[in-house]
């Protein structure tokens, strides 16, 4: 199995489990950071330096696994690993976006398989976050008038309609539109609409996997 240069966070209050998971994941080639509580993880985590996923215990001494999941708000893929799972909890976790829910004991092979799948999601999310940052930087370079023009253009309005809406000459709109396309690095109207949709969505999403 080929691993991407990604990180795996482990949050588990059981010292022996935490050490065993850390050792397994490092031996498999992953950059791994372990935490004994949800609060310590929230205090130290850094999602800006590359794709990452979280292997998370359900029962923790401060926030529960589900509470931490809500705090993270789908900012990274989560694999639940617990000895206290039930159907209702599993459903709640999966509905909230967990990529997998595993019940201890679990084989090393299955765990590594699940982590690799979560990291595929993580890479997609990271790339989408990077794209969003770049789009927002381009958007920030627009003048207020260019933003107005872009907002109308992406709704499908023609230059003459935009000119009427803004009370200016159509040739002025053509100039603004050309500048918008250049600054946003949009090759077509479809590109511009895609960028606008990305900014509106704000957060990349991934498709959770349900184990049967």
Please summarize what this structure is:
With 212 residues, this protein is of the alpha/beta class. It has helices at residues 15-27, 38-44, 65-72, 87-95, 108-140, 144-153, 159-166, 170-183, 189-201; strands at residues 7-11, 31-35, 52-56, 78-82, 100-103. Residues 7-119 form the Response regulatory domain.
Structure description:
- The chain has 212 residues and is α/β, with parallel strands linked by helices.
- It folds into two domains: 7-128, Response regulator (Rossmann fold); 141-201, Winged helix-like DNA-binding domain superfamily/Winged helix DNA-binding domain (Arc Repressor Mutant, subunit A, Orthogonal Bundle).
- It is built from nine helices and five strands, in the order βαβαβαβαβααααα.
- It has helices at residues 15-27, 38-44, 65-72, 87-95, 108-140, 144-153, 159-166, 170-183, 189-201, and strands at 7-11, 31-35, 52-56, 78-82, 100-103.
- Strands 2-1-3-4-5 form a five-stranded parallel beta sheet, with helices on both faces.
- α6 (144-153) packs across α8 (170-183) and α7 packs across α8 (170-183).
- The longest helix is centred in the middle third of the chain and has 33 residues, at 108-140.
- It is elongated.
- Mean pLDDT is 88; it is low at 204-212.
- Pfam families: GerE, Response_reg.
- The modification 4-aspartylphosphate is found at residue 57.
- InterPro entries: CheY-like_superfamily (IPR011006), Sig_transdc_resp-reg_C-effctor (IPR016032), Sig_transdc_resp-reg_receiver (IPR001789), Tscrpt_reg_LuxR_C (IPR000792), WH-like_DNA-bd_sf (IPR036388).
